[in-house]
Amino acid sequence: MSASLRWELGGEAEVIAVDDDRVTLRSSRVFPPGAPARGTLCVEPELPITVKVAGSRRDADGRFVVRGRLVSPTVALRAALRPAPDPAP
After folding, report:
1. DSSP conformational letter for 88
2. Whole-prediction pTM
3. Could you give the 3-state DSSP secondary structure of residue 42?
């Protein structure tokens, strides 16, 4: 998974895992638990995304690992976050 997004209040993140409505991001900014993290998924067309934050921690590289759940995800957003199928051998 390598979708990226821009946060509404500045900064960016990379989607590193999606499991149904749960999402894990590597972010340039931290969010407190319970906060709604709003941004734009950088796909064509761009899609709004909101994550209700469950927790954040600083990673070894200085960025933050943010865990949370998608808030009211659209069909288009779910499709954009779906991992690409493995290429046939």
Report:
1. P
2. 0.87
3. coil
Tell me the two tokens of residue 55.
């927790």
Number of Cβ within a 10 Å radius of residue 72: 8
- Nearest in space to 28 (alpha carbons), one of 6, 55, 1: 6
d(CA 66, CA 86): 26
What is the tens place of the pLDDT at every residue in 33-60?
999 999 999 999 999 999 999 999 999 9
45 prior amide bond cis, ω within 30:
yes
* CA dihedral over 6, 7, 10, 11, signed as positive or negative: negative
How many other C-beta atoms are found inside a 10 Å radius of the C-beta of residue 74? 12
